[in-house]
Write a structure and sequence with these properties.
By secondary structure, this protein is an alpha+beta fold. The protein is 38% helix and 21% strand.
Length: 104
């Protein structure tokens, strides 16, 4: 499916990635719901040097990686696409609702 790259601002210094508070960084997530999306995301980000330990909320509907600008450029070259705030919000709601449905 698709890997989405969402521009954001760092809320704190992220020294290992060379990103300071207030500087541009990116959230990277898969639009596939469930474990297949997690797997797709892990494999895709590894191509651009994003470290596995940078995962946020692993295994949840909010699972994503934070990426510094140079890594986001690499992801976009490999076929990821930029996503708007609205698109990310819609995707996260769909993933959350799917998680709730799976719990029933």
């Amino acid at each position: 499916m698709a890997i989405l790259v969402h521009p954001a601002r760092a809320t704190r210094d992220w020294l290992p990635a060379g990103v300071g508070r207030g500087e541009r960084m990116y959230h990277v997530l898969s639009d596939i719901i469930g474990p297949h999306g997690s797997q797709e995301l892990r494999l895709f980000v590894a191509r651009c040097g994003i470290q596995r330990r940078w995962v946020q909320f692993p295994g949840s509907y909010r699972e994503h990686y934070d990426a510094p600008p140079h890594a986001a450029e690499c992801l976009l070259r490999h076929g990821a696409r930029l996503a708007s705030n609205r698109e990310i919000g819609t995707l996260l709601r769909a993933k959350r609702n799917a998680d709730r449905g799976a719990d029933r």
